[in-house]
Design a protein that fits this description.
30% helix, 6-stranded mixed sheet, binds zinc ion, alpha/beta, 369 residues, elongated, 4-stranded antiparallel sheet
Length: 369
């Protein structure tokens, strides 16, 4: 049963670049058949393509006790991978794009909610565009279609409850110089030299950030990376411009702006030393982290149901958006995140089936009291 649902989900190509209307149509008809009230929250993405967040409610109420949240989109796949949209079982594993991230969890949700009639209302939340920056969940957090007490957010964690996650922030830094013939450096100013000085300061900031520790994480502090740099136009020209991307993953107890403030202070220092220093900062992402107390009834329940101690992750999830809907959130799902996003992605059958049981138990415990 659960395998058939997963096979249906994997058959529908829902790579983030495409519209997720087809998979939402499938989920909607399954939810309708279960007697849930479905609501679509459509939007048009940056490429003019229709995307839909789907909310299915067990009762027509503004606040639910529990929300089960899964994203409908997947990362792209190699067209030569024949199993990508054709779920294949081999050695206790189910192979296919999204089997692990996160269609396995969605199949478990649909299985767990079949034929249940809890006292308190619950919701199923299916989002779009998670893989390209949590776009659908952010839209939903803004629209606030409902309030939620507890959220279980699907991501492959090998059924380990994840009660906290780091945030994710990104900025493009554009350092300006003045082009000149490299034989006469006094006639210009090299943007590359300027960027190098600023990057030196950022390396010191990365060291300084280690002071502010959050013991639940590995590593237990905000990390910072400059993953891309590009500058100059020719070997014998002083670079007119040098741009680099600064990425940081703040611990949830530290506001995302903290690193931006340190960056701006570093720029101010550069300006003090070189009044001609010019630089622009385009901060494009500020995804907050999330943290649910280890004492939360949801954390306790999931620890008990899975036999796994709660942990933390250093990557972004939709849990932060669910927190904005008023909920305590935990991330959990079948499959290993290290198997996701690659050819040969799979979910172990036993974990998949176990996930449905765990979810069923959570609904029974949280929604029947
Ligand atoms: Zn995912």
């Amino acid at each position: 049963m659960i395998k058939e649902i997963l096979a249906d989900l994997v058959r529908i190509d829902s790579v983030s670049s495409r519209s997720n209307a087809e998979i939402v149509g499938y989920l909607e008809s399954r939810c309708d058949a279960m007697g849930l009230i479905t609501r679509r929250f459509p939007y048009v993405d940056d490429h003019g393509i229709e995307k839909i967040n789907l909310v299915a409610l067990s009762a027509d109420v503004p606040e639910v006790e529990l929300a089960l949240v899964g994203h409908t989109d997947t990362v792209p796949y190699d067209p030569n991978w024949s199993e990508a949209t054709n779920l294949t079982e081999r050695g206790g594993k189910l192979y296919g794009r999204g089997a692990c991230d996160t269609k396995g969890f969605i199949a478990a949700v649909l299985t767990a909610t079949e034929n249940i009639k809890p006292n308190k209302p619950f919701a199923l939340v299916f989002t779009a565009d998670e893989e390209i920056g949590l776009v659908g969940a952010k839209r939903l957090a803004q629209a606030r279609p409902l309030r939620v007490r507890y959220s279980i957010v699907g991501e492959p964690t090998s059924l380990r409850p994840i009660r906290a996650g780091k945030g994710y922030s990104l900025a493009e830094v554009i350092v300006k110089g003045r082009e000149a013939h490299s034989a006469y450096p006094a006639l210009g100013a090299s943007a590359v030299f300027r960027a190098a000085r600023l990057i030196n300061r950022l390396e010191s900031i990365a060291t300084q950030l280690k002071q502010d520790q959050h013991a639940a994480f590995d590593p237990p502090f905000t990390t910072l990376n400059i993953g891309l740099i590009h500058g100059g136009s020719a070997k014998n020209v002083l670079a007119g411009e040098c741009r680099f991307t600064l990425e940081w993953r703040p611990i949830p107890t530290q506001p995302s702006e903290h690193v931006l403030e340190l960056l701006n202070a570093a720029i101010a220092e550069e300006v003090k030393a070189d009044p001609d220093f010019r630089c622009e900062v385009d901060a494009s992402r500020q995804d907050t982290g999330f943290e649910t107390s280890p004492d939360s009834p949801l954390v306790r329940l999931l620890e008990q149901a899975t036999g796994n101690e709660a942990g933390t992750v250093a990557f972004g999830t939709e849990a932060a958006q669910m927190m904005k809907l008023g909920s305590e959130a935990v991330v959990i799902g079948p499959g290993d995140i290290r198997e996701a996003h690659r050819t040969g992605e799979f979910v172990p059958v036993d974990e998949l089936e176990r996930c449905a049981e765990v979810l069923r138990e959570c609904i029974a415990q949280l929604c029947s009291r």
